[in-house]
């Protein structure tokens, strides 16, 4: 990441302490946190008001008002230039597949090390995809359905 290309991130999670702590880590890693939101509806409103679109949006799945599935779908439809990284404690196969179907570029488990989150955001921002070890096999099987 060059100095002029600071990755812009949005953090969307309903747990205040966790969200704020993750934002602190992200800023410590040199990312710019454009905004944080506690649910998808709030995130969509902040996106509409924002002059700058985040490069990567970290989205929790289980949130009130508008969950991560609906949020990822809405963000990918309205802001396709921004990449969505699912962020959940849940490694359930159905949830992983459902998020992949909604266009997420990665899926990281909340128990991951902060360095892994940094790596995931960087890889996704560069056009790649990233999956925590606990969900990588599910993603690999999912992508087999779409031959190049």
Automatic annotation (TrEMBL):
Q: Which residues cross the membrane?
A: none
User: Its GO biological process terms?
Assistant: phosphorelay signal transduction system
Recorded hits in Pfam families, A to Z, give:
Response_reg (PF00072)
Give residue ranges for domain Response regulatory. Answer: 8-125
Q: Where is the signal peptide?
A: none
The UniProt entry, under CDD domains, shows:
REC_NarL-like
SMART domains from the xrefs? REC (SM00448)
Tell me where on the tree of life, at the top rank, the source sits: Bacteria
Q: Which residues carry this modification: 4-aspartylphosphate?
A: 60
Q: Could you list this entry's UniProt keywords, alphabetically sorted.
A: Phosphoprotein
Cross-referenced PROSITE patterns: RESPONSE_REGULATORY
Query: Which PANTHER family does its entry note?
Result: HTH-TYPE TRANSCRIPTIONAL REGULATOR YHJB-RELATED, NARL SUBFAMILY
What this protein is called in its record is Transcriptional regulatory protein DegU
In the UniProt record, the gene name given for this protein reads degU_1
